C-alpha cells in the first residue's frame, strides 16, 4: 500500500484532485489575505484611529473601513489590502517555499 492509499487518497479521481488543488489554492489565498488584513488592522489600532479616521487617511468609505476592522475578509482581495498597506507606507515581504512533503498533484 502506498502513502496515498494510507492517507485515504488512493481512490480519488482526476476531478477530485483538481477540486483538491482548487481548494488548496483558495485556502492559501485566504491565509495571505488574513495576514495582510491583520497587519493593516494592527497599523490602524496602533494609531488609535477610529474607522472614520482610517477612512479619511486611506481615502476609503467609512463602511469599507468598518468591514476591515470587523475582519470581513471576503470583502477584500489581496490586491485591495496591498494597496492600502502601501498607502500606509508599509512594505510587504513575501517568500515562496518548496513544500517539504510530496504534493498530490506531483504524483
Topology, element by element:
Blueprint: H1 3-6, H2 14-46, H3 51-58, H4 62-69, H5 78-87
Helix pairs in contact: 2-5, 3-4
Features:
5 helices, 0% strand, 434 Repressor (Amino-terminal Domain), mainly alpha, disordered N terminus, 107 residues
CATH class bucket: Mainly Alpha
What share of the residues lie within helices? Answer: 55-70%
Instruction: Report the CATH superfamily.
Output: lambda repressor-like DNA-binding domains
Q: How many strand elements?
A: 0
CATH topology, what is it called? 434 Repressor (Amino-terminal Domain)
- CATH architectural name: Orthogonal Bundle
Overall 3D form? elongated
Q: Could you give the order of the helices and strands?
A: HHHHH
What's the overall average pLDDT, rounded?
A: 84
Strand content: under 5%
How many structural domains are formed by the residues? Answer: 1
Number of helices: 5
Q: What are the segments in which pLDDT stays under 50 over at least 5 consecutive residues?
A: 1-6
Rg result: 19 Å
Class per helix and strand makeup: mainly alpha
Describe what this molecule looks like in 3D.
It is a single chain. The protein has 107 residues and is mainly alpha-helical. The protein has one domain (14-93): 434 Repressor (Amino-terminal Domain). The protein contains five helices and no strands. α2 (14-46) packs parallel to α5 and α3 crosses α4 (62-69). It is elongated.
Amino acid at each position: 500500500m502506498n502513502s496515498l492509499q494510507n492517507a485515504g487518497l488512493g481512490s480519488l479521481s482526476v476531478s477530485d484532485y483538481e477540486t483538491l488543488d482548487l481548494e488548496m489554492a483558495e485556502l492559501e489565498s485566504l491565509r495571505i489575505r488574513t495576514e495582510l488584513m491583520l497587519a493593516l488592522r494592527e497599523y490602524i489600532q496602533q494609531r488609535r484611529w477610529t474607522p472614520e479616521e482610517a477612512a479619511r487617511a486611506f481615502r476609503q468609505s467609512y463602511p469599507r473601513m468598518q468591514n476591515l476592522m470587523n475582519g470581513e475578509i471576503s470583502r477584500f482581495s489581496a490586491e485591495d489590502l496591498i494597496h492600502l498597506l502601501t498607502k500606509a507606507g508599509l512594505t510587504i515581504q513575501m517568500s515562496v517555499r518548496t513544500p517539504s512533503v510530496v504534493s498530490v498533484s506531483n504524483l
